[in-house]
From TrEMBL:
Residues 109-118 have a biased composition (Basic residues). The keyword Transmembrane applies. It comes from Acidipropionibacterium jensenii. It comes from the Bacteria. The chain crosses the membrane at residues 155-175. Residues 69-87 have a biased composition (Acidic residues). This is Uncharacterized protein.
Length: 570
C-alpha cells in the first residue's frame, strides 16, 4: 500500500452493499458484526490487509469497528491532507494507520475533513493531537467521530417549529369558531376544516317569519342525516356521486295552524368553496327540474343579497290534498343552506322564506368564508332552465285528477299536428316561419284520462317580432271566428293573457275552447292557445273532453309557461 496520504475522506458509516463474510480484492475476509460478540474471533491487522485468524495474539492492535477496509487507495490523486507524524528517532512513520478505512471512489460523498475547526470549541484541529495525547483513553486525533443525532440537524428543528405553530393556530381557531388567519389563501383539507356549529340552524323565533300569526316550535335537530331519511328538502336529489359534507345539521319545525304549516332547515359544510360550488350547481339543477312525481312548478323567484348565490322555487305536491312547498337554496362560501316551507292551503311567500333564513346565514358566513347577507331582495322570475331549453318540462304540466297521472315528454320533432281545423293555416307547411318544431307530452297512470290524452306544443321562429305577431294574430282571429266559417265548430271561453319572459320579454296571447262535431253523436274537444314573445310564436293544443279538461286558470298558466320557456331557447 502506498505510504502517500490520500485525499479521500475516512469512512465513518459502513457500506450496506457489502455483506458480512464477503472478501476483499486480495481475498481477505471482512469483519462482521458477529465479531463484536466473539472476542476470540476479532480480526487483527495483518500487513496491509485484514484477515480472520483464530491463532493471532489477542494483544495485537484492535481494529476500528464499523469501518471497511479499502485495498485500492491508489485510484485517487494523492493530496497532502495530513502531516506525517514523527517517531521518537525523528524518522517519518511509513505506516498509514487509516489506509485500511479509505472507501472506494464514488461510493459515498466526501465527508467534512476532521482537520477543520471543532464546531463545539474554538480549539483548532491542529492542536487536538497534543490534547488527545494528554488525555488517556481518548480517541485518536485522526479518527473521524460521526454525530448521527437527528436533533443536531437545523432543518429538523425548523420542521418541528412549523408543526407546533400550526397546531396552536388551529386549536385557537376551533375554540373561537374562527378560521385560522393566514397570510396566503390555503385550500383547507378535510382534517383542518372547522365543523359548522349547531347555531348555524334557524331558531323557532327566526322561522316564525314564515307565518307571524302562528306559534312555532322545534320538532327535531339532527347532526347526522340518514341517506334514507323521509325528511328531505323538496325537489333536491342528492346523488351518490356528490361530495360528502364535512358537517351537516338539519332541524324541523311545526306551527300551530289548521293548514299543517311546517318548515325544514338544512345546513351542509364542505371541505372548500370549490366543492360547495360544484354541489350547489348540482342541487340547483335538481331543484330546477323538480321532476319527482307529483310535483308541479308553481312559480320561481330570483334572490339577491343572500350569500354568494341563491335561488327559490315554489311547487305544489298534487296528492289527494294539494301541499305547497317553497324552497330557498343558497350558498355562502363553503356552506350550503336550504329551507323548505310547506302549507296545505296557500304557498308561503318566497320573500318570507328568504327573510327567515337570513339570520342563520349571517351567523355562519365568516366561518364558511363566504359573502355575508346584506339587503335581501326577492323578485318573480322564469323558472330556471332544465331538460331542453325552450320547451316545457314535465313539472310544468298539472295533473287533472288528484293523486293520479304522470307526464312524459317526447323528443322535439317536425310539426305533425293537424290542429282543430279552425287555424286557417296548415301548421306543418304555412309560409312565414323560418323554423318550426313540435314536442308532444302524454299523460299516463290516470284512469280518468281519455286514451291518447296529451298536449302538443308547437314553436315557430321568425326573422323579427312583426312577422311573429302577424302569424299569431292570423291564427287567433281564425279560431275566434271559426263558428262563422265552419258550421260544425263551436268556440267558447275566449281569454287573453300576458306574462314576462327572460330578460323582461313581453308575452301576450289568447286561449280558446274549440268543439268540433265528429259525427255519429261524437265530439272532438280541444283547448288551444296561441302566444307571441319576441320573434317566437307558441301554439298549444290539448285533446280534452267536456268532462276531462284543464281548468281555465290552469290552461292560461300553462300557456304563459310555454311562452316563458320559449324565451330560454338557445
Amino acid at each position: 500500500m502506498s505510504e502517500e496520504p490520500t485525499r479521500r475522506p475516512r469512512r465513518g458509516i459502513p457500506d450496506d452493499s457489502i455483506q458480512p463474510g464477503a472478501e476483499t480484492a486480495d481475498g481477505s475476509a471482512l469483519r462482521t458484526a458477529a465479531a463484536e460478540h466473539h472476542p476470540d474471533d476479532t480480526p487483527a491487522p495483518a500487513g496491509q490487509g485484514w484477515s480472520r485468524s483464530s491463532g493471532e495474539s489477542a494483544d495485537g492492535p484492535a481494529p476500528r469497528r464499523g469501518l471497511i477496509p479499502d485495498d485500492d487507495p491508489a485510484t485517487d490523486t494523492p493530496e497532502q491532507d495530513t502531516e506525517p507524524e514523527s517517531s521518537e528517532d525523528g524518522k517519518s512513520s511509513t505506516a498509514d494507520p487509516d489506509a485500511a478505512f479509505r472507501p472506494p471512489a464514488g461510493k459515498i460523498p466526501r465527508a467534512r475533513s476532521h482537520r477543520t475547526g471543532n464546531r463545539r470549541t474554538a480549539t483548532p484541529a491542529a492542536d487536538r493531537p497534543h490534547r488527545a495525547a494528554e488525555e488517556p483513553g481518548s480517541a485518536s486525533p485522526d479518527e473521524l467521530v460521526v454525530d448521527r443525532s437527528p436533533l443536531r440537524r437545523p432543518w429538523v428543528w425548523a420542521v418541528i417549529a412549523v408543526l407546533v405553530v400550526a397546531i396552536v393556530v388551529v386549536a385557537v381557531s376551533r375554540l373561537n369558531h374562527q378560521s385560522p388567519i393566514t397570510g396566503a389563501s390555503v385550500t383547507p383539507t378535510p382534517s383542518s376544516v372547522t365543523p359548522l356549529p349547531q347555531d348555524s340552524l334557524m331558531s323557532a323565533a327566526e322561522v316564525s317569519r314564515l307565518d307571524t300569526k302562528a306559534s312555532w316550535k322545534v320538532d327535531d335537530t339532527l347532526s347526522t342525516i340518514p341517506a334514507d331519511s323521509t325528511q328531505t328538502i323538496s325537489c333536491i336529489v342528492r346523488d351518490a356521486d356528490q361530495p360528502t359534507p364535512q358537517s351537516s345539521w338539519q332541524r324541523s319545525f311545526t306551527a300551530s295552524t289548521k293548514t299543517a304549516t311546517a318548515a325544514l332547515h338544512r345546513v351542509d359544510g364542505y371541505a372548500d368553496e370549490a366543492t360547495a360550488k360544484s354541489v350547489y350547481t348540482q342541487q340547483a339543477a335538481s331543484l330546477a327540474a323538480c321532476d319527482s312525481v307529483p310535483s308541479l312548478i308553481v312559480s320561481a323567484s330570483s334572490v339577491k343579497g343572500l350569500g354568494d348565490e341563491a335561488t327559490s322555487l315554489t311547487v305544489a305536491f298534487q296528492g289527494t290534498t294539494i301541499q305547497y312547498r317553497t324552497i330557498v337554496l343558497t350558498r355562502i362560501g363553503r356552506e350550503i343552506q336550504a329551507i323548505d316551507a310547506s302549507d296545505n292551503h296557500t304557498p308561503i311567500d318566497a320573500t318570507a322564506a328568504a327573510s327567515a333564513i337570513t339570520a342563520a346565514a349571517s351567523r355562519g358566513c365568516r366561518l364558511a368564508g363566504g359573502t355575508c347577507p346584506g339587503k335581501v331582495t326577492v323578485s318573480a322570475s322564469v323558472p330556471p332552465t332544465s331538460d331542453l331549453p325552450g320547451w316545457l318540462i314535465t313539472s310544468d304540466l298539472p295533473r287533472l285528477t288528484p293523486d293520479q297521472g304522470e307526464w312524459q315528454a317526447a323528443a322535439p320533432a317536425g310539426v305533425s299536428s293537424k290542429g282543430t281545423q279552425c287555424e286557417g293555416v296548415t301548421l306543418a307547411s304555412a309560409s312565414g316561419p323560418r323554423e318550426r318544431q313540435q314536442r308532444t307530452y302524454l299523460l299516463y297512470k290516470d284512469s280518468s284520462a281519455p286514451q291518447g290524452f296529451g298536449v302538443d306544443s308547437l314553436r315557430f321562429g321568425f326573422g323579427d317580432a312583426a312577422g311573429a305577431a302577424a302569424f299569431a294574430k292570423k291564427i287567433g282571429d281564425s279560431i275566434a271566428s271559426c263558428s262563422k266559417s265552419l258550421t260544425t265548430a263551436k268556440v267558447s271561453d275566449a281569454k287573453s293573457f300576458t306574462g314576462v319572459g327572460e330578460k323582461g320579454a313581453k308575452i301576450s296571447g289568447r286561449s280558446f275552447l274549440v268543439t268540433q262535431d265528429a259525427g255519429s253523436g261524437n265530439k272532438a274537444v280541444f283547448q288551444v292557445s296561441v302566444s307571441t314573445v319576441g320573434s317566437s310564436v307558441t301554439y298549444l293544443l290539448a285533446n280534452v273532453t267536456t268532462s276531462y279538461r284543464f281548468t281555465d286558470d290552469a290552461w292560461s298558466q300553462l300557456a304563459v309557461r310555454a311562452a316563458e320557456r320559449a324565451t330560454q331557447a338557445r
